[in-house]
Amino acid sequence: MGGADMAGDGAGDAIEGLLVEERRFPPPEGFVPYSGITDSALHEAAERDPEAFWADKARELTWMTPFTEVLDWQPPFARWFADGTLNASVNCIDRHVEAGHGDRVAFHWEGEPGDTRTITYAELLDDVSRAANALLALGVERGDRVAIYLPMIPELAVTMLACARIGAVHSVVFGGFSANALHERIEDSACRVLVTADAAHRRGSTFPLKQQADEAVEHSASIEHVLVVRRTGEDITMRDGRDHWWHDLVPAQSAACPPAEMGAEDLLFLLYTSGTTGRPKGIMHSTGGYLTQASFTHRSVFDLDAEHDVYWCAADIGWVTGHTYIVYGPLANGATSVMFEGTPNFPREDRFWEIVARYGVTQLYTAPTAIRAFMKWGREHPDGHDLSSLRVLGSVGEPINPEAWMWYRDVIGGGRTPVVDTWWQTETGAMMIAPLPGATTTKPGSATFPLPGISATIVDDRGEEVGVPGGGYLVIDRPWPAMLRGLWGDEARYRDTYWSRFDGLYFAGDGAKRDADGCFWLLGRVDDVMNVSGHRLSTTEVESALVSHPSVAEAAVIGRADAITGQAIAAFVTPRAGFVGDERLAAELREHVARMISPIAKPASLLFTADLPKTRSGKIMRRLLRDIAEDQQLGDTTTLADADVVDAIKSRYLTGGSGGVGSDDA
Ligand code: 6R9
C-alpha cells in the first residue's frame, strides 16, 4: 500500500481516492475455469453489441414463445425481450427434470438445530406444484401479490416458485422484521395471502413469527388467508376461516400444476428496501430480463459446473442476494446448493466451516461483515476443518476491506481460490461489477470491472465523467436486463430517486473511484462521504486503513461537525481477539491511518467498541454513529439489527469512554 504522498492526487475529484493497493492476483495457477473464460474476449464481444450479447444469454432460457424484440428503452423505463413468454418456475425446475436431472440435488438444507433435508429437482417440482395448487385453492390469481414471512426453510423457496408458477407476484419480508414492518409492506402492495410459520429458530431460542404476523394482518384490508408452516412446534392461535396449516392444505394437492405463460415483462416479484429515509420502496422485478442476468452472472462469476459443484450462498432469502443467488440464479442453472437456516456462530464459531467440509462446498458467497467477524473470532475455527473443496469465494453487501479480502483468500481459500467481490443492489437485480475468476486479475478490495454487457462509469457533481484515475459518483449509463422496472405504485419516486440527479443516468447512491488500470473501487454511500478541510474523503478507505492494522477486526468512521475543519473524523473500532483497546492502541491506530493514507484522514477521535450498529442484513449504519457523535436525537432505527449496540456506544461516547477517545490534533 502507498503512503501519505499520494494524498494530493485527486484533490479535484468529487471524492478523493487515497488508498493505494499494489497487490495483484491473476487467476491462480491451476485454476482451470469450467466456463472456459480466460481472457477479455467476452467483454469485448458484449461491448461491440450489448443487445445481441444479452439476447444470446436470454436464448439460453426456455421460452414458451421466443422473443423477437430485445430492448425497448424509453428512459427511465426499459422493456427487455417483451414479446417473448416464459415461466420462471419452468426455467428453474421443469426443464432440468425433463433433461434427465430429476435426481440431482437442488438443495442440501440444514436447519439451525442441525436437522437436514435433501431436495432433488424432481422433488422440488412436486413440492412447488402442490404449493401452487394450494395458492390457487386459496383464490390467488395471476398478478395478485403474496406476502412471504418465513425462516430460511425450504418452504420459502418453494412458495416463491409456486407464486412464479401461477403468475402471482411474491413479496418476501425478512423473517427478522417486526409486525409493523410486515404490516407496512403488506398494505403497500395489497397482498391477498400471507405465508408464514409458527416461529423461527434463533440462536437456540425462538422468534414468534405467527404472533408478529397476526399483529400485522389484524388491521389488514387485503389479507384473506394465512398459510402457516409448522417449524418449531410452538403453540400458536389459528383463526378459523383465515388461517390454514401448510401440512393440512399443501400435501393434499395434486402434484401437477400447469405453469402460467407469462410475458417477459410481467412482474416476478416485489422486494422492499428501506433506504435511509421515508417509507420502504417496493422494488419491481420482471421475469425475462431478470432471469437472464441472474443466471448468466451466477454461472460466469462463480464459474459454475452444475454437475459437480456444491454452491453455497450464505445470505438470507429475505434480501435480494438470496432471491437472485439462492433461488433464481442457481436453480435456473440447475445447480446444487446448500441452504442454511442458522447463523455463523451458533452453536459455535466454526458452524460455517463444518458445513463447507460436510457438503464439500465449492463456492461460498458471503458478506464482508461475516468475514470480519470470522477474523475477529480467529483462524483456529476454519483451520480445524478441511476446506479444500472450495474453489471460488464471493463477497457482497459492502466494500470489502483489502485485509479482509486477503484473509478470506488465504485463510478460507488456502491461497488457492480466486476472490470475486461483486457490486450490485436490490435495484440492479443481479451483479453488475465483478471479476470473472478465470480471466480477471483481481486486487484486494476492488470489484474490478463491469460484467460483460454492463456499462458503468463515474461522474462528478455536474454529471461529467471523471478521468481515469479519478473518483466520484457511480452511475450506470445503459439499461441492463435485470434492472428494476419501477417502484410499486410510485412512478414519481422512481424517477426522483434514481434518475433525477444526473440527466439520463442511473445513479446508484454509491461513491467509487477508478485506478490507473480502470478497476472500480467502491467507496461507500455518498451520504457518508466526509468533508475534512475541503477534502471529500470516503469512509471506506479510512476504515480499510484501520482494518489493515493487525489489532483491528472491524471499523466504522464518520464525519462529525467540527468548527474548524468542517467535519472531523470519528472512528469506532472493534479489536480482534487477543487485543485490548486502550489509549496506547488508539494513538497507534491514528498514526497508522496517517501513515497508510494521509495525515488529513487521521481520525480526530477513536472509540473501541465490541460491536457496531448494523442493519439486519449486516451493513454498518454510519448515520446512527453520526447522530451519537454529534449528540443528536437518533434518527430512524427501524432497520437496526440490535438496539443495545447503539446504547452501549452512546453511553461510552458521551462519558468520554473507557479506552481511547483521542484528542483533536489531526
Ligand atoms: C446486493 C446488495 C446495495 C448497496 C450498494 C452498496 C453496497 C453491495 C457491494 C457494495 C461495495 C460491494 N454494496 N455490494 N459496496 N462493494 N461488493 O447488497 O443489495 O442490500 O440493495 O444493497 O450495498 O452501497 O448500493 P442491497
Report on the architecture of this protein.
- The protein is of the alpha/beta class and 666 residues long.
- Helices cover 30% and strands 21% of the residues.
- The chain contains 19 helices and 29 strands.
- A seven-stranded mixed β-sheet has the order 5-4-17-16-18-19-20, sandwiched between helices.
- The radius of gyration is 24 Å and the shape is globular.
- It binds ligand 6R9.
- Ligand 6R9 binds next to helix 10, strand 23 and strand 24.
Reconstruct the topology from this structure:
Layout: H1 41-48, H2 50-58, E1 71-74, E2 77-80, E3 85-86, H3 88-101, E4 105-110, E5 116-120, H4 121-137, E6 145-149, H5 154-166, E7 169-172, H6 179-188, E8 193-197, E9 200-202, E10 205-207, H7 209-218, E11 225-229, E12 243-245, H8 246-249, E13 262-263, E14 267-273, E15 281-286, H9 288-301, E16 311-313, H10 320-332, E17 337-340, H11 351-359, E18 363-366, H12 368-377, H13 380-383, E19 392-395, H14 402-412, E20 419-421, E21 456-459, E22 470-476, H15 491-499, E23 506-514, E24 520-525, E25 530-532, E26 535-537, H16 539-547, E27 552-562, E28 566-575, H17 583-596, E29 605-608, H18 622-629, H19 643-654
Parallel strand pairs: 4-17, 6-7, 6-8, 7-14, 8-11, 11-12, 16-17, 16-18, 18-19, 19-20, 28-29
Antiparallel strand pairs: 1-2, 3-13, 4-5, 9-10, 14-15, 21-22, 22-23, 23-24, 25-26, 27-28
Helix pairs in contact: 1-2, 3-4, 3-5, 3-10, 4-5, 6-7, 9-10, 12-14, 18-19
The protein binds ligand 6R9.
